[in-house]
Amino acid sequence: MAFRIDESVCVGCGGCAFTCLFGAISAANDDASLYRINEEVCAECGQCAHVCPVSAIHAPEGYKKIRKVTILPEKCKGCSLCSRVCKANAPKGKIKEPFEIDQEKCFQCGVCASKCKFDAILIEY
User: Fold this and answer.
1) Which of 19, 69, 93, 117 has its CA 20 to 30 A from that of 56?
2) How much is the pTM?
């Protein structure tokens, strides 16, 4: 499941494509007057819906918005995988020491948690 663009409402401004750090949104036609979301790439972070000036982007059914992402220091091994996969550069730390999430940078996409091999990242909905 991924966010969807209502093509009858989309005005083709491209704000969603510009905002998407995952490259999941691209022009659906030659004149870039309509955009589509690649479901295989969409991280369901919701940033595109947040910036859409005409509310053309909608969450998938059953979508739960992530409110906060934190790293549990007792589980974190300091492998840095979370930092390497984060497009916002929110996880910070030193290798072999527990990392922390910079809440000012984090836009709650959850990609870091999905990649953590130690189940050290807590997602709060």
Assistant:
1) 69
2) 0.76
